[in-house]
Amino acid sequence: MTTSYFSTADRSRWLEMAAGLDPVLAHQVAQPCAVVAFHPDLAAFQGWRVERSDDARAGLERLWRDGDQVDFDFGTHVVGRLRMRWESGPAGLDAPVRLRVLLGEVPLEIAAPREPFHSNMLPRSWLQEETITVDELPASIDLPRRYAFRFVRIEILGLSPRHEIRLAKLEAVAEAATFNEPGPLPDDVAPLLRQIDATAIRTLRNCLQSVFEDGPKRDRRLWLGDLRLQALANGVTLRRFDVVARCLLLFAGLCREDGIVEACIYHRPRPHRSGNVMADYALLFAPTLLDHASMSGESALAAELWPVAARQVELITGALDGSGRLPAGHPYGWTFIDWNPALAREGPFLGLAVYCLRAAARLARLVGDDDRRTAFTTRAEHLSAVVREVWMHDPETFRDPFAGQTSVALTAWMVLGEVVTDVQARACLHRTLADTSAQQPAGPYLMHHLAHALFIAGAPSDALGLIERYWGAMIARGADTFWEIFLPGNELASPYENAQLNSYCHAWSCTPSWLLRAL
Amino acid sequence: MTTSYFSTADRSRWLEMAAGLDPVLAHQVAQPCAVVAFHPDLAAFQGWRVERSDDARAGLERLWRDGDQVDFDFGTHVVGRLRMRWESGPAGLDAPVRLRVLLGEVPLEIAAPREPFHSNMLPRSWLQEETITVDELPASIDLPRRYAFRFVRIEILGLSPRHEIRLAKLEAVAEAATFNEPGPLPDDVAPLLRQIDATAIRTLRNCLQSVFEDGPKRDRRLWLGDLRLQALANGVTLRRFDVVARCLLLFAGLCREDGIVEACIYHRPRPHRSGNVMADYALLFAPTLLDHASMSGESALAAELWPVAARQVELITGALDGSGRLPAGHPYGWTFIDWNPALAREGPFLGLAVYCLRAAARLARLVGDDDRRTAFTTRAEHLSAVVREVWMHDPETFRDPFAGQTSVALTAWMVLGEVVTDVQARACLHRTLADTSAQQPAGPYLMHHLAHALFIAGAPSDALGLIERYWGAMIARGADTFWEIFLPGNELASPYENAQLNSYCHAWSCTPSWLLRAL
After folding, report:
1. Who's near B83: CB < 8 A, 6+ residues apart?
2. How confident is the model at residue B91 (pLDDT cuts 50, 70, 90)?
3. Among A47, A64, A355, A414, which residue has the fewest nearby CB atoms (within 10 Å)?
4. Which of B374, B331, B380 has the alpha carbon at shortest distance from B352?
5. Least CB-CB distance to A125: which of B98, B137, B144?
6. CB contact at 8 A, A279 and A263
7. How close, in Å, is residue B129 to chain A by CA atoms?
8. Which of A64, A87, A94 would you mutate first to test chain B, the one with the most B CBs within 10 A?
């Protein structure tokens, strides 16, 4: 018989508490605002220019024949259902009608062919489309799933050559845990930053469903690293602390026998594990719980889940060797940090471990666990000393001595781990940012940590500049919500070998709202 | 203001009576009996041989991966719903699953590619298929429509490359107005004819839904010519006279302002006209009503709808000229008779008109309308004399003097119209059947009328021989239900330029049961 670190009673209680916090989703009807056409254009985002060709009404007033196809634009990113009503034309109908509906967050998903499909990693079923056959008209058709989209292509795949039909209604019913608007930004915030903030809030809201999803198109799933960033933005905007609590309870309730929490979990059809553990995500449980307590002003959940947070920190930081590295072959040796495949991850991970130890020490203080407070503080200081001795090339340069590598990830996480003074941190960041040989961030997740580190190091104007340059560049390319992946020089970059599969409303990109409001 | 021949009150009453007779459908669960493979084979029906490759269980016990495809055989023709239950494999599921289901009455519909689609007449939406995307497993999936099929292909179009899924259940829920079994055939009926009878009854049952549909795959619609033949077979087998009455009432209630009944109507989403009139089908309202009264033993409906039957006969036969032809440009000049495009239709139509006049005269007698009885009898005799004078080349040969054509259709309908004696009729039929220059029947609808004529003319062994040869040839080719179109020498013949669109369970082919039991 296996003895599990947390009792079945504890884990069941956490799952029950999570179930009790399942939010009632709110709804808002959205209408298409235009009929558009997509044109190949090397100067446009991902090579496709969108041109308004008519009012949305034009698509509703016309008669459709077999083979017809119309592209609608809903004007902004929507997460929800799609409803249509079709009527027969003046001559009636003598055969079933077959329609295909393609939905896309960005023009590429609609304008570029979906076949032949290419990805060795993800299946084509992530591409949003439905084929519907209707025997009789009039018919009201609610497409069967929830979608994430701005653009909708409707094609008539089969219709009697003697008949025409009419689209009497096309509307979306947007879904989210809340449509409340957050309070305004301070008056002195610049227009571009205000636009970035609004886009970040839309990103957050569209991911805020029954759980904080990483992306409402893909993976539609609760990841711990994403949750932490969403919870930060949520704390200063939509303030749905109940959903944050629900998500933390789900991770806790689904922890493994040894007490480790998984990197992502599924809440449907019933909460269950994914089988993935990532050391960095597991450690981040502690700061997520701490931030929740401090932003919500409620410490009950921190007390309830403190043993889980402490367990992650003990299990993982306890295994670090004298250089602050997890031994080769450690079962939880996989870390994410960033998409960049050339990145040496041990250094940034060590910085993250110190960051999480400090957060855990603060949590220990909050819940009155003096022994662990002392232990975690001591370990954080010890590892900081190891960093300064082993992982610094000079007082202004963090450097991985094993991989022989400098990287933005390494410097940012060492700064966040507060292993050096503010002044030194600022110098390190500036030097790394000027170092063309340093490994660069490959996505918004690490960009957030860099911006955060710049604020922490007392370089807010650098941080704001970064936000304007990086998130602003997405806005300039037409983003209604911020993306999972964005490399300014390679708009078709995709970890999945197919940019149609990328998520274009992705939680971990929503942090400018927190950076602008909290720091 | 238009004055309509029948009052709004009459027509509304007929539609209300029809609504009151809408049958409650019965259901029966059917299981697949095998996994099969289709092989190109010039010796097999339509070029595709079906081979059993395993138990149906094999498809249910296996794990399915992306791109997998399995063909199931339900063992016989089923009209109804399809239900599946899918479960995730041992590793769970991390992405939506997309499935495509193709359904077919015959191997050609599954085995031959559906694209590129070709038909200038009918749309591809008649080809039965569904694409379904499921976000979570386990999932019970009821495909959204009613289908007509024996074979079902399931293809996995999108599934995470790291995962497998399992088909935990696949079953059909057959639908029909009744699953009652008719009484047995006489003991002396030969085995092949018994098999033909059973297949005919299955054909009838699978078309016997909320109305008598022409074909449950296509057109799923109430046609008057088909109804008449179904009602005959129904009268001696399933005996759902209520549904026959309902259908006649629908035709009557939807008649046009001038009182003509349409050739086909739609009963869904609410009863409405199709806009098609065919002179032969309109005339056949009278014999259909007469047969209903005599087979059901109830004359109330005959009395109710007698004015409608009489109106068709008066409107159409009253317009025939001195040679028994409708004048050029007559608004109801279109007749069906048979698919054969080379067939001269005026002669067979004249025979049909006499047949219908005689039936109308009998109906007049039944309802006590002596004036019309006399008028219709007189007109039938007058037209018979015209036929004998104008449309016979010699006492044993009917011949269209205008088109210079002999045809099976002409002789059969003249015999059914009883324009000559039995002995003469028999001689005419034998001569036509031996005449290689005569236009031949192009489908089961006219084959029925030929067989009926052979019985009427006192040549039952010729009639039985025809049934064995023609309907038996469908059985030999694997028919579970009889087909809309069958030319023994051209199995891919299709009036729609695409044999995948043909209906393989078609009402007008179900008459052997009536011919064997009633004649």
Report:
1. B140, B141, B142, B143, B169, B170, B171, B172, B173
2. confident
3. A47
4. B380
5. B98
6. no
7. 9
8. A94
Token output for A93:
């109908």
CA distance A409 to A447: 9
Closest CA to A343 of A278, A436, A438, A276: A438
Q: State the pLDDT confidence band at B426, using cuts at 50, 70 and 90.
A: very high
Both tokens assigned to B267 = 């009963």
Confidence of residue A91 (pLDDT cuts 50, 70, 90): confident
Q: What pLDDT, on the 0 to 100 scale, is given for residue B45?
A: 98
Predicted pLDDT at A3: 79
Torsion of CA A67, A73, A78, A82, to 10 degrees: -30
With beta carbons under 8 A apart, name residues in chain B contacting A213.
Answer: none
What mean pLDDT do residues A117-130 have? 97
Residue B463, phi then psi, degrees to nearest 5: -60, -45
B80, B172 contact by CB (below 8 A): yes
A364 with A372: CB under 8 angstroms?
Answer: yes
> Closest Cα to residue A217, out of A271, A146, A268?
A146
Residue B139 pLDDT level (bands cut at 50, 70, 90): very high
Distances (CA, A) of A101 to A98, A154, B65, B89, B318: 10, 5, 26, 30, 53
d(CA B268, CA B272): 8
* Residue B3 pLDDT class (50, 70, 90 cuts): confident
pLDDT at A2 over 70: no
Burial class (CB in 10 A: 0-12, 13-18, 19+), B316: buried
The predicted complex's ipTM stands at 0.95
Give dist(CA B390, CA B350) in Å, integer: 11
A160:B133 CB<8 A:
no
Q: Assign A116 a pLDDT band (cuts: 50, 70, 90).
A: very high
Beta-carbon contacts of residue A271 (< 8 Å; ≥ 6 apart): A15, A18, A250, A253, A254, A265
Looking at residue B313, its pLDDT comes to 98
Mean pLDDT of A160-188: 95
Chain A contact set for B268 (CB, 8 A): 135-136
Cβ B75 vs Cβ B34: under 8 Å? yes
Mention every residue, 6+ apart, whose C-beta is less than 8 A from residue B163. B88, B89, B91, B92, B93, B94, B95
Look at residue B1 and tell me whether its pLDDT is greater than 60.
Answer: no
Kindly give, in sequence order, each residue whose CB lies less than 8 Å from that of residue A114, ignoring residues fewer than 6 positions away: A102, A124, A127, A129, A500
B259 with B5: CB under 8 angstroms? yes
Mutation site, A82, A94, A125, A165, interface B, largest B CB count within 10 A: A125
- Asked if B47 and B88 touch (Cβ cutoff 8 Å), the reply is no
Question: At residue B218, does pLDDT exceed 90?
Answer: yes
Q: Where are the beta strands (DSSP E) in B5-143?
A: 26-30, 34-40, 48-55, 69-88, 97-104, 129-134, 139-142
Are the beta carbons of B70 and B99 closer than 8 angstroms? no
CA–CA gap between residue B371 and residue B360 (Å, rounded): 12
pLDDT tens figures, A495-513: 999 999 999 999 999 999 9
Closest CA to B246 of B288, B183, B201, B204: B288
By percentage, how much of chain A surpasses pLDDT 70? 100
- Please list every residue in chain A whose beta carbon sits closer than 8 Å to the beta carbon of residue B97: 125
* Cα of A158 to nearest chain B Cα, Å: 5
